[in-house]
Design brief:
This protein is an alpha/beta fold. It folds into two domains: about 170 residues, Rossmann fold (3-Layer(aba) Sandwich); about 70 residues, Pantoate--beta-alanine Ligase, Chain: A,domain 2 (2-Layer Sandwich). It binds pantoate (PAF).
């Protein structure tokens, strides 16, 4: 696996694949790789000649500076996990590489970016859309891979690809859960054991398949969700966001599977 930090190094690393017309699969991440990311990398490995993973904690998608500062970072562990999952090129730029002084061009998605995370985290999807378009334009992937846990993010990225006529396919990979049902998230490492037990009410609430019943489950666990509602995200989906201690968690379940 080649590790690159700059755009120039990335372009050099991908030049042979470009010249030989090889297909490239892109897995954009913010690092702190877990089994959910490994599933994305494995899906990319199965469908492409070359797999590129990116590790970039994108400051533009954080509205709270404390959340950005607390985001877990361990590039050496990420490099080991990416390599073990079959990654060919790992691109881990610093913020100034993607947002140099004078950077002033943003993608402002509406539509799928409105409501839910778009309401709770103003500017979040502007940051996500902008960094994704930059990564697509740098890597020229045939396919890019995203986890269903961030279902609204998938809808926003699909909308951006459609509206800007970008030539790549967006692939969605199922949410990976711990045996106790908690959806894997890089933020889970910030939960204390007691908070983790409380957080298990989130998958239990989703399993009810009903916002009112789900709210009751969360209330019993002492959780007041930011939202728990049915949204149309590639079909009717029960979506939830809730703060457990200092950690914000999101999760969802497609309703067609449980009704
Ligand atoms: O889902 C994430 O980790 C991020 O939002 C992404 C897609 C890597 C963009 O920074």
């Amino acid at each position: 696996m080649k590790r690159v930090q700059t755009i120039a190094e990335l372009r050099r690393a991908l030049e042979p694949a470009r010249l030989e017309g090889m297909s490239v699969g892109l897995v954009p991440t913010m690092g702190a790789l877990h089994a959910g990311h490994v599933a994305l990398l494995q899906a990319a490995r199965a469908e492409n000649d070359v797999v590129v993973a990116t590790v970039f904690v994108n400051p533009a998608q954080f509205s709270e500076t404390s959340d950005l500062a607390a985001y877990p970072r361990d590039l050496e562990a990420d490099a080991r996990a990416a390599e073990a999952a079959g990654t060919d090129v790992l691109f881990a730029p610093d913020a100034a590489e993607l947002y140099p002084p004078g950077f002033a061009t943003w993608i402002e998605p509406k539509g799928a970016a409105e409501g839910l995370e778009g309401t709770q985290r103003p500017g979040h999807f502007r940051g996500v859309a902008t960094v994704c378009v930059k990564l697509f334009s740098l890597v020229h992937p045939a396919r890019a891979y995203f986890g269903r846990k961030d279902a609204q993010q998938v809808a926003v990225v699909r909308q951006v690809v459609r509206d800007l006529n970008l030539e790549l396919e967006i692939r969605t990979v199922e949410t990976v859960r711990d045996p106790d049902g908690l959806a894997l998230s890089s933020r889970n490492v910030r939960l204390s054991p007691a908070e983790r037990t409380v957080a298990l009410a989130i998958p239990r609430a989703l399993a009810t398949g009903d916002p009112a019943a789900g709210r009751a489950v969360l209330r019993d666990a002492g959780i007041e969700p930011e939202y728990l509602e049915v949204a149309d995200l590639d079909g009717p989906t029960l979506v939830v966001a809730a703060q457990v201690g200092a950690t914000r968690l999101i999760d969802n379940t497609p309703l067609r599977r449980i009704v």
